[in-house]
Amino acid sequence: MKLLLVEDDLIIVSGLEYTLQQEGYDVIVFHTVEKASSFIQHHVKTIDVCLFDLNLPDGSGYDLCASVKQKCDIPVLFLTAIDDEGNVVKGLDMGADDYITKPFRVKELVSRLRTVLRRYERQSMRTEMYPFGPIEIYPLEGKVYKQQQEIHVTALEFRLLMIFAKHIGQVLSRDQLLHMIWDSAGEFVHDNTLTVCIKRLREKIEDDPQKPTFIVTVRGLGYRVGS
């Protein structure tokens, strides 16, 4: 986990760098806006989280926050001696994720870093999606939607739908499907169960299950996965 720390108080830097390294962070330190800006310009996508002092010798942490948010969506926290509602609002409006007033307890800072990172992790999980025709599949949530309406599927139907979504445009034989379902679940699936499962999936996702366009039977071969 890489953390970009920009702070001009060397005593604070020394204590923070040591503590954060003990917590498993790879800490990259700068003391000025100029040097930090150059790093952000070329390497910000290697960073997981930023910790910026608000008042720096040659500028403001606001400027650094704006530069980071223009390039990528990673968490930014401010360190500052200014406990003013206007400054707090300004920082949050710019996209900052938290605002920590000096003096602070290092353990509290570490805890708030973890909270922000967990929030970003949950957001990332929610956005992982597989499109399949009119269907959106969210594997980490185990949910399926059609035109923004949730479709309730069984565990087996969900596994089969994920297989289809990963093989758009391909023809998959029944043996291939049975093998892939078996591998992913670790349990045997009967051929008749596959037939029923495909029938039920068509009823749930196709506009006309009798004339499917997304799970299409290819006689003698298996099923072609539409898009």
| Helix-strand makeup class | alpha/beta
Can you count the helices? 8
Number of strands: 14
Overall tally of domains: 2
The residue ranges in which pLDDT falls below 50 over 5 or more consecutive positions are none
CATH topology name of the largest domain, in short, is Rossmann fold
Kindly report how far apart the N and C termini lie: 38 Å
- Helix content percent band: 40-55%
Q: Return Rg in Å.
A: 25 Å
Task: Provide mean pLDDT, rounded.
Answer: 86
How are strands sequenced across the largest beta sheet?
A: 2-1-3-6-7
User: CATH superfamily of the largest domain, please?
Assistant: Response regulator
CATH class of the largest domain: Alpha Beta
How much of the residues is beta strand, in percent?
15-25%
Q: Note the main sheet.
A: 5 strands, parallel
H and E order: EHEHEEEHEHEHEEEEHEHHEE
Broad shape: elongated
- CATH architecture annotation name of the largest domain: 3-Layer(aba) Sandwich
What does this structure look like?
It contains eight helices and 14 strands. The protein folds into two domains: 2-127, Rossmann fold, CATH 3.40.50.2300; 130-225, Arc Repressor Mutant, subunit A. Helix content is 46%, strand content 23%. The strands form four sheets. A five-stranded parallel β-sheet has the order 2-1-3-6-7, with helices on both faces. Strands 8-9-10-11 form a four-stranded antiparallel β-sheet, covered by helices on one side. Strand 1 (2-6), helix 1 (10-22) and strand 2 form a beta-alpha-beta unit. The chain starts with a strand and ends with a strand. The relative contact order is 0.09.
